[in-house]
Amino acid sequence: xxxxxxxxxxxxxxxxxxxxxxxxxxxxxxxxxxxxxxxxxxxxxxxxxxxxxxxxxxxxxxxxxxxxxxxxxxxxxxxxxxxxxxxxxxxxxxxxxxxxxxxxxxxxxxxxxxxxxxxxxxxxxxxxxxxxxxxxxxxxxxxxxxxxxxxxxxxxxxxxxxxxxxxxxxxxxxxxxxxxxxxx
Amino acid sequence: xxxxxxxxxxxxxxxxxxxxxxxxxxxxxxxxxxxxxxxxxxxxxxxxxxxxxxxxxxxxxxxxxxxxxxxxxxxxxxxxxxxxxxxxxxxxxxxxxxxxxxxxxxxxxxxxxxxxxxxxxxxxxxxxxxxxxxxxxxxxxxxxxxxxxxxxxxxxxxxxxxxxxxxxxxxxxxxxxxxxxxxx
Lengths: 184, 184
Hints:
Two copies of one chain form a homodimer. The mean pLDDT of chain A is 91. Chain A is globular, with a radius of gyration of 20 Å. Chain A has helices at residues 7-18, 22-38, 73-82, 109-118, 132-144, 170-178, and strands at 40-41, 48-49, 63-70, 87-91, 123-126, 151-154, 181-182. Chain A is built from six helices and seven strands. In chain A, the strands form two sheets. Chain A has a four-stranded parallel beta sheet. A two-stranded antiparallel sheet of chain A has the order 1-2. The longest helix of chain A has 17 residues, at 22-38. By secondary structure, the first copy, chain A, is α/β, with parallel strands linked by helices. Among the domains of chain A are: 7-38; 63-154, Dna Topoisomerase Vi A Subunit, Chain: A, domain 2 (3-Layer(aba) Sandwich). The termini of chain A are far apart. At the A-B interface, helix 3, helix 5, strand 6, helix 6 and strand 7 of A face helix 3, helix 5, strand 6, helix 6 and strand 7 of B.
């Protein structure tokens, strides 16, 4: 691992900090404290926000009948960057993972059910990852919401954009074939 | 580039060959000649084969009403490895690419139209890559086959298997959202 959370990066940052002017380090520490204090979780959707409810939840131009269910707050940023989604969000705050001791009751599912009762939601778009836990959680949720009259969909699995068949693994190819759609 | 077709690999192979026992090199050269002589293009689907028609075209257990359209013969191997497809194939032998001077008449489209008339084909599954040329070729073909009564589908675009949202680019995410499917 060599990403922002790797031991190597941590070491690099630590070495940089102890060699930086004391005043700059003090300012950085202060900024970290303020950010930690101001950023909270939106009580409605679970996104990171400075205001309650968050800017997406309170935006009247967004389609309130659509909820996109994501694993973590950072996934909202990914989807917002794609610029194609105009509904609201709900952060699950994890995936069902018996091996790691995470059950449905550890996730923000009850909060979502409260929203289903209070708001007029027509569709829940499950945008979890395509790994085993993502699959299991998606099927669990689809089953749990089956009686509510809300449509449950899942984002497509398939070939990533700009890619050829030669770069796709077997499971991706078989899901891409299975999920084929008619061209009109 | 460091793949099998890179200058680096070519150099490595060349250096290996000139230092190998002469008899082994002669056998290798012979094997290459025989392979080149025996392997032909299937006159029906365009796959690489030693017999006419190829083993897939002549297999009665495969669904003859489905044709999977691929760019190159090697794509057939990728899809066969996924083990989920049981129809037949057709190799387009390229993609429409005006910048490279490749037009529809340079591809095996007329051969496919001959097959559409002779065989009882219900669906053409376009399994081209998801780059600009793949998109353009897919739409061109869908339009061209629109009057034939054959259903034209395209393999799904979306998140590759085993992946999370954080690894997907914006275009892939927007196509994954757009191609979402209901879970039952």
